[in-house]
Amino acid sequence: MNIRRNVFASTAGIMVTGAVIGILAIILQANGNPQNMGICVACFERDIAGSLGLHRAAIVQYLRPEIIGLVLGSMIAALSFGNFQPRAGSAPITRFCLGVVAAMGALVFLGCPWRAILRLAGGDLNAVLGLAGLFVGIGIGTVFFRRGYSLGRNVPQGRMTGFLFPVLMLALLILRLAFPQIPGQDKDGILFYSVSGPGSMHAPLWLSLGVALVIGFIAQRSRFCTMGAIRDLILFRQTHLFLGLLAMLAAAFVMNMALGSFNPGFEGQPVAHSDGLWNFLGMVTAGLAFALAGGCPGRQLFLAGEGDGDAAVFALGMIVGAAMAHNFGTASSGAGIGPYGIHATLIGFAICVVIGLMHSKRA
């Protein structure tokens, strides 16, 4: 068991994890998921919010099994290796607000850090500005880290508390099985389904779930995290986690080339817009929120799977934030940013700065 743990935690292990994520994401695209969106935590949490009726944007409503699988895969790994440690209590409301801000910033860009990498691997050059914004946002976060930023320590919780979020994900899976989409209809029982647009594009249920279970398992073991990779590169000049991101990019690029789905350029990219300034600034805000919360959206799901209630609160904040982004007109589309996308980006950034200052020891 120790040998396996060391292998997953090694540099080779993190690179294999990144490569597997890149390969499996393109496989999901080839089997029905939107192009350049094999796995996008922010977008898929938005689709889940729509499927539950939290927003009524008809083209982005689908209960994505990938989110469920990421959490359950992480839980299985944590239980298997003795890492399931229920804990919570580290500024939960603050973390919820950071989740809301992170989702709204990401949906101005149209993607989480994973999707930014997948967009670039598919030839979408708008992702360069998004990734640059992510680096800047996390870089600003490191300024607060140097000032002693902390949301405080969490404390151990009862075992049942650690299972609550995975059980919630399992309940969503049961709903998905109980109320499957009826071809051509946008609602079955209590769930909403898109009949056109990105929400109508999805791989088969069991393929999506199986892929996500694998990713959740290996990512929990390797501690794969986009935000952590960039933070460690800036703060400590450590490339261990960052090599995992490069492996993900390289693997996804090779898969796109092999399948003929590499399409370089700025215009006409799937589920993307070419407003460079707000692609950049949207991810600055999202990156800062990820940094202050202690992990990228994927990492937060993996932590929630291993019993971290604070990470679960952040994930719930992202689902609510994604719903708000569409209800309030802040989310972007292929036509450009939403009517209130600028407001959401700037207000969200200001909220993050206030949180960073108020939780810094030198404030």
Q: Assess the beta-strand content as a share of residues.
A: under 5%
Largest sheet: 2 strands, antiparallel
Distance between the termini: 44 Å
Number of helices: 15
Structural class: mainly alpha
Tell me the helix content.
55-70%
What's the Cα radius of gyration?
19 Å
Mean pLDDT reading: 96
Uncertain regions spanning at least 5 consecutive residues: none
How many distinct beta strands? 4
Strand adjacency order, main sheet = 1-2
- Overall shape: it is globular
Q: Write down the secondary-structure element order.
A: HHHHEHHHEHEEHHHHHHH
Secondary-structure topology with pairs:
Blueprint: H1 2-9, H2 11-30, H3 41-51, H4 65-80, E1 87-88, H5 92-109, H6 113-121, H7 126-146, E2 155-156, H8 159-178, E3 187-188, E4 191-192, H9 205-222, H10 226-236, H11 240-259, H12 276-293, H13 297-305, H14 309-327, H15 341-358
Antiparallel strand pairs: 1-2, 3-4
Helix pairs in contact: 1-2, 2-9, 2-11, 3-14, 4-8, 4-9, 4-13, 5-12, 5-14, 5-15, 6-7, 6-11, 7-10, 7-12, 10-11, 12-15, 13-14
